[in-house]
Amino acid sequence: MKKYKVIGASANFHSGKLQVTEEQFKARSHALKKLTDEAGGTCEILSPVQFKRGEEIGYDGAVSKSLLADISPADDTPGSDGDNTADTPPDPVLAILDGNVSQVIDALGDCTGEELANLKAAEEAGKTRKSVIKAIDDELAKRADKEEEAELLALIPDYTDEDLQAVKEEELEGANRETIIKAIDDELAKREADKEEETE
Question: Taking the model in full, what pTM does it have?
Answer without folding.
Answer: 0.44
